[in-house]
Amino acid sequence: MARSPVALCTDKLFKVLVIGDLGVGKSSIILRYVKKRFDKAYKTTIGVDFGLKTIEWDAKTLVRLQLWDIAGQEQYKKMSRVYYKEAMGALVVFDITNRSTLEAASEWKQDLDSKVCLDSGSPVPAVLLANKCDMTDRKREEASSLDRFCEENSFLGWFETSAKDNINIDEAGAFLVKQMMLNDTGLSSEEYHGDRIKVNQAPGEIQSQSLCCWRPRL
Fold first, then answer.
1. What is the DSSP string of 33-68?
2. Across the chain, which distance is largest between two alpha carbons, in Å?
3. Residues sharing a CB contact under 8 Å with residue 126, sequence separation 6 or more, in sequence order
4. Tens digit of pLDDT for each residue in 36-63?
5. Buried b (16+ CB within 10 A) or exposed e, 86-98
6. Residue 142 — φ and ψ, nearest 5°?
7. Which of 25, 36, 49, 182 might form a disulfide with 131, Cβ 3.0–4.6 angstroms?
8. Tens of pLDDT along 90-109?
9. 8-state DSSP, 195
10. Model pTM?
11. For strand 61-70 and strand 48-58, is the pairing parallel, antiparallel, or unpaired?
């Protein structure tokens, strides 16, 4: 009697950096993304913390994200070369209510690009998160300025997010995963079919949220 075929499963592990200034909400974003909850009790990250997120990419592929929550204090930037090693992607976070943290996001991106790159020599794919959008009313002019900011600093795109209200957290993560998978498989965006990402969640758990993202042609 013929044996039934055994389905092979590919398990991919990507190291993702979550960087930005102190107090922008990096830890809250990771908590929301990984554990689907928000904690009002703020605790400052000291050094580096970690989160693990598992995503079903397709029927035969699991993607595991090792999320490195890098402390935003100035002294930890000196250790960033050690923390950044072997990273495959990055989320750079700023507080949309605090303009200085956007300026700092440019510095974090420059630091990232100077200390780590892909095997091909290309920059690590990075997405900008305009966090705490629940605390402000974004204007069209602000969106246009963020488009320019992303172009000038070589971000793949940006999302307005809220860890508190669960706005665009999964969407931003899925967008970054897509870019890392493209780099990992060597596919072009034309060869990729974009509906293969399925984040582990109960049907209807996450409602569709407003998305503001600049995306270049890849």
1. HHHS---SS-----SEEEEEEEEEEETTEEEEEEEE
2. 69
3. 89, 90, 91, 92, 109, 112, 154, 155, 156
4. 999 877 666 555 788 999 998 888 889 9
5. ebbbbbbbbbbee
6. -65, -40
7. 25
8. 999 999 999 999 999 999 99
9. T
10. 0.80
11. antiparallel
